[in-house]
Write a structure and sequence with these properties.
Elements (H helix, E strand, L loop, with lengths): L3 E4 L2 H18 L7 H15 L2 E7 L2 E15 L3 E8 L18 E2 L11 H4 L7 E7 L1 H10 L4 E13 H6 L4 H5 L2 H15 L4 E5 L3 H21 L9 H14 L5 E8 L2 E11 L2 E9 L9 H16 L3 E3 L9 H5 L3 E11 L3 H15 L7
Parallel strand pairs: 4-6, 11-12
Antiparallel strand pairs: 1-2, 2-3, 3-4, 3-5, 6-13, 7-12, 7-13, 8-9, 9-10, 10-11
């Protein structure tokens, strides 16, 4: 089966989206590869990035699909490098939506040998490097097999998660079953401090309108925190904001979105924006009301309250997701298990890349300047 490509347009996507949805339903992969996620992303970023849609069919049925976004940059300031980004990635700096559990969408049990290798497709497009973020080990293995001879550079990140099903089987509370004595003490102290202001409450948005109101409040807390730390914050990008507003409008009624607000009395402690993925909660973004008094730890209080609610509601897992950077310690302390995700670059064998590899090595071998 050969890969067919078409440049993104609304009409072009309309021709494939129902088949994409059916393949997604058969494939048991994450929400980040769903039709709804991809459609919202394409509407915001697709035309500007010149996204291309790749499909492979057998007897008219869709057996494989992915998106590709190509950009040209420079290496060492002068050498042009042509990169391709897999699926919903490659946005302008500061606007990236950071999809995880990434990979080529494939028919279950499809024989990779029946698919055209990507090392036949990408060189024809002039691609020097393929960038693929948040890959599962299985997805990484598929790409490595499809790109024989390409050098692979991989950085692994942890997705800490809480196995709610296992806790439920133990007939124990989350705090008893999952938290160390030290972490349990921290949680109890901060929740006791908050409870002196009023009862700890939790609200799960029950309408699109309420979800968008909560997103707006989350955004305010999030931006205030990160700007105070001297950074822009995720919601500084208009396109990032537009994507998530569109995603909530298109996905809320299908049950894919969970917006959570935790309060002490009538004051918000924190808000969480998560995705619901086949019984799993995928925590994506947050906004917390931080205070100078370190007895009040809004992230800890908000997540623990949300986890206990999810346990009561019958969800199977609560994921903190990985990200490219180191996972905050408190997320690990709240978790019972971990999954590993890969941030990978696949480098095509070519004289240019061989030269660039040599130049990088030479630059790294030079003695660094010492500041006195």
């Amino acid at each position: 089966m050969d890969w067919q490509r078409v440049a993104y347009s609304k009409s072009g996507w309309a021709e494939v989206e129902n088949d994409w949805d059916a393949l997604f339903a058969r494939s048991e992969v994450s929400f980040f590869r769903s039709r709804r996620w991809c459609k919202a992303w394409l509407e915001v970023f697709g035309e500007a990035l010149g996204t291309e849609i790749f499909t492979a069919r057998h007897e008219e049925a869709l057996r494989g699909a992915y998106l590709l976004n190509r950009k040209t940059g420079t290496v060492l300031g002068v050498v042009p490098i042509h990169r391709a980004y897999l699926n919903t990635a490659g946005e302008e700096e500061g606007a990236g939506v950071s999809a995880e559990y990434n990979g080529v969408l494939l028919q279950p049990n499809v024989d990779p040998g029946t698919l055209q290798n990507l090392d036949e497709v990408l060189p024809r497009l002039g691609v020097d490097e393929l960038v693929a973020a948040g890959l599962t080990p299985k997805a990484l293995d598929f790409l490595q097999q499809n790109l024989p001879g390409w050098a692979t550079r991989v950085a692994w990140s942890e997705d800490p998660y809480i196995d709610l099903t296992a806790i439920r089987h133990r007939e124990a509370t989350y705090r008893q079953a999952a938290l160390s004595k030290n972490t349990r003490g921290q949680v109890n102290r901060t929740l006791n401090a908050y409870s002196k202001r009023g009862e700890i409450g939790i609200e799960i948005a029950s309408s699109v309108e309420r979800a968008l109101e909560m997103l707006s409040e989350l955004k305010r807390f999030h931006q205030a925190t990160w700007v105070a730390r001297g950074q822009k914050g995720a919601f500084a990008s208009d396109n990032f904001c537009r994507f998530h507003e569109l995603l909530i409008r298109s996905c809320f009624d299908s049950g894919d979105i969970m917006m959570t607000r935790v309060t002490a009395g009538d004051q918000a402690i924190g808000l969480l924006y998560s995705f619901v993925d086949e019984g799993r909660i995928l925590f994506y973004q947050s906004g917390f009301r931080y205070e100078e008094d370190n007895r009040f730890r809004p992230g800890l209080a908000t997540h623990v309250t949300a986890v206990e609610e999810c346990l009561d509601r019958g969800y199977s897992e609560y994921h903190f997701l990985a990200g490219e950077d180191l996972t905050p310690r408190y997320k690990k302390s709240l978790s019972t298990d971990v999954e590993m995700l890969a941030w990978a670059r696949f480098i095509r064998p070519s004289p240019k890349n061989t030269l660039l590899g040599w130049l990088r090595s030479f630059k790294q071998s030079l003695p660094s300047k010492r500041h006195r």
